[in-house]
Amino acid sequence: MSGNSKGPTHWDQRYLSRDAPWNSGLVSRELIRVLREERISPCRAFELGCGTGINAVALAQRGFDVSAADFSPVAIERARTLAVDAGAAVRFAAADLCRCEDLRAALGTDGAAACERHCSFLFDRGCYHCARRVNLASFLETVDWLAAPDARLLVLCGNANEQMEHGPPRVTEMEIREEWGQLFKIEWLREFRFEDRGGVPGPRGWSCLMTRR
Ligand SMILES: C[S@@+](CC[C@H](N)C(=O)[O-])C[C@H]1O[C@@H](n2cnc3c(N)ncnc32)[C@H](O)[C@@H]1O
User: Fold this and answer.
1) Residues with C-beta less than 6 Å from any ligand 1 atom
2) pTM reported for the whole predicted model
3) What is the rounded CA–CA span in Å between residue 44 and residue 59?
4) When comparing pLDDT for 198 and 138, which is higher?
5) Is the pLDDT of residue 5 over 70?
6) Which of 2, 16, 74, 75 has the most CB atoms at less than 10 Å from its CB?
7) Which protein residue's CA is at the shortest distance from atom 8 of ligand 1?
8) Left (φ > 0), alpha (ψ -120 to 50) or beta: where does 107 sit?
9) Which of 126, 122, 132 is nearest to 184 (CA)?
10) If residue 46 lies in a helix (H) or strand (E), which one and from where to where?
11) Is the domain 8-212 a CATH 3.100.10.10 member?
């Protein structure tokens, strides 16, 4: 579990106790805006740290061939139920994205073959800003393993320009540029607001669209 003090058990407990303000129950407005503005058309997609799956299901409903992973088994179980209820086909895996071999095993032989260097759209809402604190290099290795040569990656993460006691882990613009710069070319980086539970405006975030180098 990569020496992560905030491992699956921590996240399971947050989902079980409903101490999960990010889990808005709504599809990310920023994701939908970027798909529309950038004309990102259906392709093989992967969601990093998908939580209870609402955005993975939304992508599948828009014609994407979606795989998604999160290391909280509780979240993945809910995500699978959501997909079945919505009639959406999503390949969900309970796995630590800081351990690529864990992800490969959880995806199974066919799932791993479908994902390896085949994902042309990757989406991350709130996973990178956690995983970078644990093992950034290993997290990036997993992203590298997933990303097709033409891949685009949309990262939504906490924004260090906002000073607040609670809220998501925060990242500076420079950290994003430095940490992703070797693997991806940054197309743009802009501020946005997360939605919290019930769709209320949440913390300030970064929205960053990148293309595989
Ligand atoms: C802030 S939540 C966001 C969940 C979801 N993306 C959403 O928007 O509702 C962060 C998620 O990342 C997952 N996560 C954090 N570190 C992870 C890791 N190393 N591997 C897999 N999932 C991880 C957590 O379990 C949690 O569900």
Assistant:
1) 11, 22-23, 49-51, 69-72, 75, 96-98, 125-127, 130-131
2) 0.96
3) 10
4) 138
5) no
6) 75
7) 125
8) alpha
9) 122
10) strand 44-48
11) no
